Amino acid sequence: MSTPASAAATPRGSRRVSLGIPVPRRTDGLGDALPDTSDRPATPALADRFGRAATDLRLSLTDFCNLRCTYCMPASGLTFLGRDELLSPAEIVRLVRIGVERLGIEQVRFTGGEPLTRPDLEEIIAGVAALERRPDISLTTNAIGLDHRAAGLREAGLDRINVSLDSVVSETFERLTRRPLLHRVLAGIDGARAAGLAPIKVNAVLLPGVNDHELPDLLDWCLDRDLQLRVIEQMPLDADRIWERDGMVTAADAHALLAGRFALTPVEEPRDGAPAELFEVSERATGRPRGRVGVIASVTRPFCADCRRTRLTAEGRVRTCLFSREETDLRGALRGGADDEEIARRWRAAHWGKKAGHGMDSADFRPPDRPMSAIGG
Length: 377
Ligand code: SAM
Ligand code: SF4
Description:
Blueprint: E1 46-47, E2 53-54, E3 56-60, H1 89-102, E4 107-111, H2 121-129, E5 136-141, H3 146-156, E6 160-164, H4 170-177, H5 182-194, E7 200-205, H6 215-224, E8 228-232, H7 251-259, E9 262-266, E10 277-283, E11 289-296, E12 309-312, E13 317-319, E14 328-329, H8 331-335, H9 340-352, H10 372-375
Parallel strand pairs: 3-4, 3-12, 4-5, 5-6, 6-7, 7-8, 8-11
Antiparallel strand pairs: 1-2, 9-10, 10-11, 12-13, 13-14
Helix pairs in contact: 1-2, 1-9, 2-3, 3-5
The structure holds S-adenosylmethionine (SAM) and iron/sulfur cluster (SF4).
């Protein structure tokens, strides 16, 4: 991978060196060459060749982050995008408007990198919330600084929030994130609750021998606080390439880890495109109901056949899958004066080339060049 995983950390705002993405030949001055769409039906939706249509937009606001989670970023950081390379609030709101007005987007989740490191996050959310066809607006965050911003974000129009928290033990948290900042995350969660942002979901990635043994305590801690835990299988999207298929903690392992203390019963509701399988949780010893837990088995039980996602990177490139090796530039079109329909056309064309699945099980699978922090999880 030519991603500068071992490059020295570079301050935000500095010039960017290539992330190593192979950029297709430019054909029209507006961005990249587009997939062949000669067999595409005339539908406004973000349709693909496998009968799916994307309605859920994951929009990365930055590739910068103040943590260095081992399954995501290298210790040294990465070469981050410069300010001019990031989409501006006006560009983001325009792309979301095109998505909802012309392409059938219904939900927008802001992510990163760490979206709270953008000082204009409130402005972006307010702009999207003011759209005539307002999408559902959510945020995935590490919650550092959220205690000071939760009320403003809610006021701006934020509907829902997911906080990433892999451990509530300080030493383990620091080992995972390489920063001694658990107290800041906990303050952020308290701030979100005080601001009335509910429900709060907690995302946890389990690493073998690091935090997997803490899972029952983490679930207990979440249930006590009315937080909905989502256990996420680790994917091969880390800059250091630490992921190993044989060593990862699977969804089945997570069930086994919980089985001593909790009984889990599948929730009989349609998943409706949601990646998490939901379970009702009760105390094994007493039968006392405690709440729910979700398990996201992206690796061992992929849900690609029902995928409704489209992604935009922080510099305005469409990715149809976390694991895509192709991207379609929209920022060049935006800045080159393209009208809304031309941007929608490029976005649709990108989706017509979406693959059937992430392909992790095929012999020639290669993870994308970008790590998770530069894609937007
Ligand atoms: N910084 C924010 C955060 O951590 O919530 C938003 C961006 S982060 C990339 C989004 C989500 O991706 C987090 O819940 C994180 O745990 C998850 N993630 C990062 N790397 C991952 C990996 N290799 N496998 C599975 N999930 C990962
Ligand atoms: Fe930052 Fe989120 Fe990646 Fe952790 S998972 S390094 S908080 S972007």
